[in-house]
Design the sequence.
């Protein structure tokens, strides 16, 4: 068995340990928004399955996906505020994303209340239409934001 011995210690006095590079990659709020949009889209899929196979399991999946999407949306808002307060550069046309995302979150909150009712009518037709509307709003928001970010680009 070998032993290591520290023979000398060097202390750096007056060291400036600031971070010299800026963090790279996507801001956390954009990642969280993507996750919440995926949860909301998953709720649409489970609503469609429940419409075809009226098993309570699929209705429960829907409400859990909507709830998870709302929780992650709340975390995304907190991360966005932290990014703004920290002076992080936010994408140029932020208002269409913010308005569209806020509309999708409000519709999802209403959808969570609709899904909390008992029985088949908790999903069909109102919950199914709200889930579809949330996905359409998110898709339109992404399209408008992309179009405003690249005004010379036509089409997808």
Sequence:
């Amino acid at each position: 068995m070998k032993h290591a011995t520290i023979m000398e210690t060097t202390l750096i006095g007056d060291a400036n340990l600031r971070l010299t590079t800026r963090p790279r990659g996507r801001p956390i709020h954009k990642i969280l928004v993507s996750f919440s949009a995926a949860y909301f889209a998953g709720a649409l899929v489970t609503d469609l399955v429940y419409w075809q196979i009226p098993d309570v399991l699929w209705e429960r999946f829907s409400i859990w996906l909507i709830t998870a999407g709302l929780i992650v949306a709340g975390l995304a808002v907190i991360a966005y505020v932290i990014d703004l307060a920290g002076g992080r550069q936010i994408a140029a046309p932020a208002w269409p994303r913010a308005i569209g995302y806020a509309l999708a979150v409000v519709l999802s909150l209403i959808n969570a209340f609709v899904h909390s009712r008992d029985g088949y009518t908790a999903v069909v037709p109102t919950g199914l239409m709200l889930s579809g509307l949330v996905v359409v709003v998110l898709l339109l928001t992404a399209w408008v934001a992309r179009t405003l970010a690249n005004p010379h680009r036509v089409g997808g």
Observations:
- The mean pLDDT is 85.
